Amino acid sequence: MASHFITSTLEALAKYPSRALFKQHVPQNGSPSWVSISYETFLRDLERSAAYFVETLPGLGLKQNDVVGLWITGVKYSDLAHIYGLARAGYVPEVLNAKITIPIIRDLFAKTGGRALIFEPIFASSVGNDFELPTLPIPELSSLSTPSSALPPLPDVAPTDRGLIFHTSGTTSGIPKPIPETHRWINSHAQVLWPRTWQCYTDGRPLILNNIGSFANIGSAVAIAYLSWSGHCMVQTSKSDFEVDEFLAMLKEGLNALFLYAPWFSKLLNIAKSDANVLAALQGLSQIIYTGAALNPEDEIWATEQGIPVTAMYATTETAIAMVTPFAEKGILPAMRLIEGLDYKFIPTRGLEASDLDRDSEHRVQGGQLFDLFLPAEADNCPHESVRNRPDGHITGDLFEEVKPGLYCFRGRNDDWIRTGKHFSFCDTKSIEDHVLTSCADLVRNCVVVGHYKPGVVLFVEPTKDINSPEDEAALKSAILERISAFSARLIIHERVNTLSQIVSVPSGSLPRTTEKGNIRRKAVEEDHSAILDEIYAGLEI
């Protein structure tokens, strides 16, 4: 594989000049509508963007291989052109989404070595005039000229150097965790993982599928690399949980496959149960992949019985795609196999019982050994060394059970991260708990954050002093909320404790704990207090 990921991407883009690479969502009179953009057009736009950055950024004191922040809305075609244009100019784009704030950008740059910030003009008031590094508004793509001379050569890079930088959907101590993607990682994703994930097109016909979320997030931002390698096309959606009429309109644009997060796919299946047109549309697709969470068993069974061509996929920002349901093996959802050609392996998890899992996973577990997924350091899509959690590689933190030889099912997590919010994004509960215990040491003796696969998080606290009245409880909650407000403001919205209703006070020592170490048992807290939690979740607006 070529070292710099842009080299192979440019070669791939040149193979299919007249094919549609991207269908830009441009609604007409309130109805879904799209404009096709060819491989050749995207390549020209990429080169115009690259030429602008080649001409402009050295004047800001930047040199090739510097990390440059690119703060984008994540909803515009031009976002993709500028990500790849900045990379073609020889820089390392650190892609920042619309939810990021200037204080968080400063913290991220301190970790990644960011040297400048290029920003969407709508963020100008946030950037202001006192940002300590060079700043530059993103130009309108249509205003850029075609380069009059050849672009300079790409810089020399090693396969394990950073090619792009993204971030986790949750934060650690109030800061999204930077996830650099190496050149070999991106090339492996495009040339090995993607073709073996979409098992429905093996004859060279183009796959036409939707984007999965914002172009500022890895699932859609890396799309150009993997789509171009296989000659495929992406249809832009108006939002990740697009409406049914938009789905049906996309079919008329040639959509023949779906790529969805499990929560929205579950809603689509529920609609299909009472709408014959939607059911027929799902049945007529070549392949549907869902990811991000498990479907409930009833949906898995129903989709299989109806002949809907659905497959589960396991992927993370750190590891890319790792497992997918074999398309040819029917009736095995949600089981998955490791993708061939990857140097992964499962290693037994020690010291963890089924009763320690979240409620859904405990109900699904079949009594077998639980495994961690391990990526050795030499694996092409082992994450960058700054991300790895072992000297010899990386363990994902997700748990799996082998249900049949070579077939594995997801069985929850083995760390302090949960999934919460509208899109079940990651949340580091320990960083929130640690901050509460530090900032409220005179108020809170112990605490735990819950909310796995729920609309938001809830903080349970054991106060240092007895609560003798509703007034005492209200005063305690108000004091906690005030002390953690600055910290919460730095978190992504689904992680924040913003309201009094998200704090529950319980008597000291009453939270369930493990027998041996006395650690608070998160899942048991959720089960013991399920009634009050259901009321809280029903009223949350995240």
From TrEMBL:
Gene3D superfamilies: N-terminal domain of ligase-like
GO MF, one annotated term: medium-chain fatty acid-CoA ligase activity
Matches recorded under Pfam families: AMP-binding, AMP-binding_C_3
AMP-dependent synthetase/ligase domain sequence ranges: 15-327
Coiled-coil regions listed in the entry: none
Top-level taxon: Eukaryota
GO BP term, example: fatty acid metabolic process
InterPro entries with a match to the protein in the record: AMP-dep_synth/lig_dom (IPR000873), ANL_N_sf (IPR042099)
Record-annotated membrane-spanning stretches: none
Family (UniProt): Belongs to the ATP-dependent AMP-binding enzyme family.
Record protein name field: Acetyl-CoA synthetase-like protein
Species this protein is from: Favolaschia claudopus
Biological classification of the source: Eukaryota, Fungi, Dikarya, Basidiomycota, Agaricomycotina
